[in-house]
Amino acid sequence: MLTFDEIWELLTTQDESKQIEVKQGSEVGKSCWETISAFSNEPGLGGGYLILGIQDPTKSQTQQYEIVGVPDPDKIQGDLTSQCNTAFNIPLRPY
Predict the structure, then answer these.
(1) H/E element, 84
(2) Are 54 and 23 in contact (CB under 8 A)?
(3) Which of 45-54, 60-69, 79-88 has the lowest mean pLDDT?
(4) DSSP 3-state assignment of 67?
(5) What count of Cα atoms within 13 Å lies in the side-chain half-sphere of residue 49?
(6) How far is Cα 50 from Cα 37, in angstroms, rounded to an integer?
(7) How far apart are CA 11 and CA 86, in angstroms?
(8) What is the DSSP letter of 44?
(9) How high is the pLDDT of residue 20?
């Protein structure tokens, strides 16, 4: 498992990748659980890092990734958990 400093170094020197994705994190939307699904289903990847509270360089005046924080971490965590539970826990019927 990488530390935040290692992830940040990879992000700022190599950009987002199959294993690292960032979101601003002011709200949890479909793109978050799509990223989690992609991390879960990419063969040989073993997961990934979804970092919330980072602003994309294209939306930044400095043209670099910026840490902007998450306004209500408890709400974001709860929303993400709830949405993943709904999206990924689809009951299967036995044959």
Answers:
(1) helix 73-88
(2) yes
(3) 79-88
(4) strand
(5) 19
(6) 11
(7) 30
(8) T
(9) 94
| Contact residues for 11 (Cβ-Cβ < 8 A; gap 6+) | 20, 22, 51, 54, 65
Residues 6+ apart with CB under 8 A from 55: 24, 65, 66, 67, 68
- Amino acid symbol at 86: T
Nearest to 23 by CA among 62, 64, 75, 68: 68
- Per the CB < 8 A criterion, the answer to whether 22 and 32 are in contact is no
pLDDT at 42 over 90: no
Q: State pTM to two decimals.
A: 0.79
Q: Outline where DSSP puts E strands in the chain.
A: 20-23, 49-52, 54-55, 66-67
**What single-letter DSSP state applies at residue 61?**
T
